[in-house]
Write a structure and sequence with these properties.
Blueprint (H helix, E strand, L loop, with lengths): L4 H4 L8 E6 L6 H12 L1 E5 L26 E2 L13 H17 L3 E5 L3 H8 L7 H4 L9 E8 L2 H17 L2 H10 L2 H4 L11 H10 L4 H35 L5 E4 L1 H8 L5 H22 L1
Parallel strand pairs: 1-4, 1-5, 2-3, 2-4, 5-6
Bound molecules: adenosine-5'-triphosphate.
GO molecular function: AMP dimethylallyltransferase activity; ATP binding; tRNA dimethylallyltransferase activity
Pfam families: IPPT
InterPro entries: Dimethylallyltransferase, P-loop_NTPase
């Protein structure tokens, strides 16, 4: 593990320190961000392009306030999706202002999210909106970064993601989506912002046809749930592919292996938290300490 090369590849243009937590959806980025922010006096900047918007809190898996441990969160649920989409350039400008203001208050900025196409232009010294298709990754970073990635073996992660969708449905996801559908927000701005959240397009047919017979309704509901699960697995896979491209392009991303903890969680073992601390939290504290503070 080459801990110091991340520092070496920085340009020096800006020397602010930033912890970055990358990884697929559902892999524990949010939980880890709270642990790191608590340990290192940090504030969190959201880098999930869908969680930027107000609304659909269950569907988009926003961290509830009572789980935030008093940590300040930036760019989380701040924008009105009906007014248009936050572009990559706007995100970069907002997030870099947040980094400066957090640093100015002598706290540590922690960037967390799965939207690699927003993370890359923010961190990279050379803006290339097509980086994930061109494959030409710039190694120069604008900040002194500690790059971390949650990694969970795909079959283990998918099992967890499937259960997470069931839990989201039990927690009121369908009512939330029904309200969104009825508010017609989706008609004002098609394929923009929240309208793209996994769950919105998948449940559209169900809401549209609802009331046309019980059997048909049940079949459409099952189909929507199945599509949400499949599209979530696909999202996780694509997010990891993008992270692998950045690694192959020279980004020194430190992988944290959450597989054992997730396996134990799925099996209902109450020892999962020990594995989480051993395999994820402690290594992440050590890596951040070495990369940013040694
Ligand atoms: P892409 O270029 O594929 O949009 P990206 O890196 O910009 O990739 P991702 O975060 O991978 O953005 O999101 C891609 C898509 O995944 C979103 O447009 C949305 O459909 C879905 N998605 C992402 N995050 C969420 C979320 N929190 N809740 C629901 N759906 C999400």
């Amino acid at each position: 593990m080459n801990l110091l090369s991340t520092v070496a590849q920085d340009t020096g243009a800006k020397r602010e320190k930033v912890v970055v937590i990358m990884g697929p959806t559902g892999s524990g980025k949010t939980k880890l961000s709270i642990e790191l922010a608590t340990r290192f006096n940090g504030e969190i900047i959201n880098a999930d392009k869908i969680q930027l918007y107000k609304g659909l809190d269950i569907t988009t898996n926003k961290i509830p306030v009572d789980q935030q441990n008093g940590i300040v969160h930036h760019l989380l649920g701040k924008f009105d999706s009906a007014l248009g989409e936050v572009t990559q350039a706007e995100f970069s400008s907002l997030a870099s202002s947040a980094i400066s203001s957090i640093t100015g208050r002598h706290r540590l900025p922690i960037l967390v999210g799965g939207s690699n196409s927003y993370i890359y232009p923010l961190l990279s010294a050379q803006f290339d909106p097509n980086v994930f298709t061109s494959g030409l990754v710039s190694q120069e970073l604008r900040y002194q970064c500690c790059l971390l990635c949650m990694n969970v073996s795909p079959p283990v992660l998918n099992e967890y993601l499937g259960k997470r969708v069931d839990d989201m449905i039990d927690s009121g996801m369908v009512d939330e989506l029904a309200e969104f559908y009825e508010s017609k927000i989706h008609e004002w701005a098609p394929d923009v912002g929240l309208r793209k959240a996994i769950g919105v397009p998948e449940f559209e047919r169900y809401f549209h046809m609802k009331g046309n017979g019980q059997l048909r309704e049940e079949a459409l509901f099952e189909e929507a749930v199945r599509d949400v699960k499949e599209n979530t697995y696909g999202l996780a896979r694509r997010q990891m592919e993008k992270i692998q491209r950045l690694r192959m392009g020279g980004w020194n991303i430190h992988m944290l292996n959450g597989t054992t903890a997730f396996m134990m969680l799925s099996e209902g073992s109450n020892k999962w938290l020990d594995a989480w601390k051993r395999d994820v939290v402690t290594p992440s504290f050590n890596i951040c300490g070495l990369v940013l503070f040694s």
